[in-house]
Design a protein that fits this description.
Blueprint (H helix, E strand, L loop, with lengths): L1 E9 L3 E10 L2 E6 L10 E4 L4 E4 L1 E6 L19 H6 L2 E6 L10 H14 L2 E7 L12 H7 L3 E8 L9 H18 L4 E6 L7 H9 L7 E4 L5 H9 L4 E4 L4 H9 L6 E4 L8 E2 L5 E3 L7 H11 L4 H6 L3 H6 L16 E5 L2 E7 L2 E5 L2 E2 L9
Parallel strand pairs: 1-4, 1-5, 6-7, 7-8, 8-9, 9-10, 10-11, 12-13
Antiparallel strand pairs: 1-2, 2-3, 5-16, 14-15, 16-17, 17-18, 18-19
Length: about 375
């Protein structure tokens, strides 16, 4: 059991100074004063710190992405210590351009390793391409029978995608929806949206011509399509913005449309290729999960209140991904808690596991040899 004392709590709603009692993986109590004495109780004094829910990053290349500039350009896998160091307690892993040398099986294995270390971790089947790469041979079966898989990924409006037809996307969404009903998962189709002017025009067509609920269609990388993003938010859909230098301004523009359905994610360990007008690579970069707390603070620095900024990485992604016990500091919810002092992460607790303690992440299995 863990008792956090004198915590200035953002649930993400600000409720001021309270104590938090954790038992096992859950929050047992939040009260102005909790005085108990138990054998083995760990007491953490959070006086002078800000305490908020652990962050949710819904778009992470757990086993690495890249490969567009030869095999040497494959991005390494994301370590669990780096996830915790960013204050992230829940991730959703996925594949990118490379669904050939990387597989959904490998991704699921990595996700299971994160869980063993103490994180909450999930993933998506599929990659950029259609036909969809799966484990069982079926999108619906992957979602229904594999605990870690909660949806499927596909790419649209990108010169690297397989240019799926709208009919193919409808079939994917229908399969994911049926699986979501049986498995009680979100059953999302997570759309990598490239920079092509088409944007999410196919998604609007799906909503206008079928009875599929909009909640199953979740586009990301929408910074290049802010007008479409505003329209999608007005319809009640979820929109994800990727962390980068312009993300704070993009988020602020969209917050006036719908504060509850907007999320941010990092695309961590995915490649950020730079293209010329002929679609030739002229440079390479990679996403970092450390951009998530950096972007949250940048949004706050631009005048957005902390509650609204924290929602982008707590309650909002929890809603989009149907995580019913995450995103809130509330009795009965998972004990996913960050304690920050002067903007630095002092403590990170995931499902009651202390992953960062006094600014240091707990050891990984291969720290000494990698």
């Amino acid at each position: 059991m863990i008792l956090i004392k004198n915590a200035d709590i953002y649930q993400p709603e600000h409720i001021g100074i309270n104590d938090i009692l954790i038992g096992g993986e859950k929050i047992l109590a939040i009260q102005p004063k909790i005085d108990i004495s138990l054998e083995g109780l760990r007491v953490i004094d959070a006086e002078g710190a800000i305490v908020h829910p652990g962050y949710i990053d819904g778009h992470v290349h757990a086993i690495g992405g890249g490969g567009e500039s030869g095999m040497i350009s494959r991005v390494p896998a994301l370590t669990e210590k780096k996830i915790a160091a960013a204050g992230v307690t829940t991730i959703v892993g996925l594949l990118g351009t490379d669904g050939t040398t990387r597989s959904v099986r490998d991704l699921v294995a990595k996700i299971q390793g994160y869980k063993e270390w103490g994180l909450s971790a999930y993933c998506l089947t599929g990659s950029y391409q259609v036909p969809t790469k799966t484990i069982t041979g079926s999108i619906g079966d992957d979602i229904t029978f594999i605990n870690e898989i909660i949806g499927v990924k596909v790419a649209i409006a990108d010169h690297r995608c397989s240019f799926p037809t709208t009919s193919e996307l409808i079939r994917m969404a229908s399969e994911a929806r049926i699986a979501s009903l049986m498995s009680k998962k979100c059953g999302i189709v997570h759309f990598h949206v490239g920079a092509d002017k088409l944007g999410i025009s196919q998604l609007f067509e799906i909503i206008n011509t079928t009875p599929l609920p909009i909640k199953h269609l979740y586009p990301t990388h929408m910074g290049n399509h802010l007008d479409q993003a505003e329209e999608w938010l007005k319809l009640g859909g979820h929109i994800d913005i990727t962390c980068h230098d312009e993300a704070p301004n993009q988020v602020i523009k969209l917050l006036s449309t719908n504060q509850d359905n907007l999320t941010i994610s990092t695309d961590s360990n995915g490649s950020f290729p730079k293209w010329n007008e002929k679609r030739e690579i002229i440079g390479m970069g990679a996403g970092s999960i450390l951009e998530l707390p950096k972007t949250v603070e940048a949004i706050i620095d631009k005048g957005v209140d902390r509650t609204t900024a924290y929602k982008l990485v707590t309650t909002n992604p929890a809603k989009a991904l149907s995580f019913t016990s995450k995103g809130l500091l509330k009795v009965g919810y998972d004990a996913d808690i960050d304690i920050e002092v002067d903007g630095k992460l002092r403590t990170c607790i995931s499902r009651g596991n202390i992953l960062v303690d006094e600014y240091n992440a707990k050891p990984s299995m291969y720290d000494e040899c990698v």
